[in-house]
Structure formats: structure tokens, C-alpha cells
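seq as requested:
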Amino acid sequence: MNLLFKRTLKPMLKQHLDDIPKLRQRMGASDQAIPKPIANTEFSRIVVEGRQVDRVQHESASPDKVCLYFHGGGYVLPGSQGHAALASELSKQVGMTVYLLDYRLGPEEPFPMAVDDAFAAYRWLLGEGLTPDQIIIGGDSAGGGLAVATLLNIKHHGLAQPAAAMLLSPWVDLSLSGSSVKVNEDRDVMLSEGVLASWAKAYLQEHDPMAPLASPIFADLSGLAPMLVHVGSTEILRSDAEDLVDRVIEQGGSAVLKVWENLPHVFQVLGSRLPEAKASIALLADYCRQQLRTPT
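C-alpha cells:
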């Protein structure tokens, strides 16, 4: 799988650095290779605060335990459809309903619009009668960074934190100052520094890449929900995950890191095709079950 990505996906991402519409078209075609959702899962599309949301619920899932999940894609690529299999598996294993948010993307709708959409979705869940301890915030890559930004926004607005956060290879430093950006440049089979720099520029426009809601690694990370972070050892975003966990712990929070050896970026979306993906999803699901509780 690593060899396939290195020969096909990584060159394609580099090829379309300055042509995001073309990249979206190419990536949309490749989504057809993503595993299909598991059986007995219901999908429904709703609109929340003007944004499309896919509601994913396995027949065994409870509507009172939910995950608000933000897809990756460098803040420029759509991705909820490619996460349907992952969402359905989490729904089944945890017994929770998963909401996949299609937040606004750069360069057409740049920062902080995605952050606004994510926070609005959380407030909508609360308005639907859910309590914070019934909610998991999740995300991968850019969506992982957006998840942490949402936790910060929740804190800034004086709201209660959700039960927990699960983050897959989170991109929390858009300034690309992490050590692994250069150390793993050649080892990462998918991403490269040039690609991330291009996406960050498209998303941020003229905003500071070190702004806390753009790059949460530079924020005050105290008082956030506990989090579980998974990342691959050869990713250029490995240091983002490591630094995030270190800083959360240093500031009195709870964070757990799992580094997977020689696995590609957000390998969990490959589901049944990789035994490591199955194992990672099982650990994520177990963590969510432990953190979620229904108020009495």
C-alpha cells in the first residue's frame, strides 16, 4: 500500500499544487477505491446552520451518543463521502451516531469559516438536547486540527467540553515548524512540505499561520477535553501529533499518543484492507466507549 501511494498519490498531489479544482476532480475519482460502509447502516443528509451534514447510524447505535467528525483534506478538499466506511464502523463498535460535517473550504471560503462551521455544528448538537458528555469530537489531518480548534472555541465561549476527542494524524501547525516536516519528507508516502504549504496558503489567505484557531499547537491548551491521538511513524505530521500531546500534558490536560510503525497518513480510512486499520479503529472505539457516558 505504501508503495502504491508513493508512486501514484504523492506525485499527483505535487502535480496539482496550484490547481485545486483539478485536484478535487482527481481525488473524487479516487474516492471510488475507498471501502464501502458496513451493512445495516443508515445514512441521511441534513442541513445544519447552512452546511451539509451526513448522519451515519448503525442499527445498534444510540442517538444519545454521538461523534461530530471533521474530515481531512488540507482545508481545500471535500472528504465526507470518503469517510463513510470509517464512520459506519465507529458507529457500530461504539454504539454512537456519527455526524460528518462538510465545512467550508479554501481558497473560495478561507479561514476562519471552517472554524465557524465546526463550532456552529457543536452548538447545534447541544440545541438538539444532547449534553457535552454525550459528544465525541473527532477528525483527521486538517479535520484533526479543526477538532482541536473547536475545543478551543468551546472553551473561549464558556461552554462545557465534550466527553473526549479522537484525532488521526492531526495537522495542528500550519506554519510547518514541526521537526518531522523535513525529517520525514522522503519517508512520507503521501504528503510533502510543498503540498502542505500550498494548502495552508490557500486556506489562510492573508491570516497568520500561527493564529491559535488555525494552528492550535500555539494556543493555550489547558482545560480541553481528553484526547487520543494516532499517527504513523513516517508521516511528516508525526511531530504535530507528538508536540500536541506533549503540550496538552504539560498544561495539565489528558492526552494519549499511539504511533503506528510505517503506516500511511490516515490509514484508518482503508478499513478492512489493512489489519492495522482494523486495530486502530478498535482502539479508537474502545476509547470512545470509555469516555462516553449517558447522564442519569
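The CA atoms of residues 87 and 98 lie 6 Å apart.
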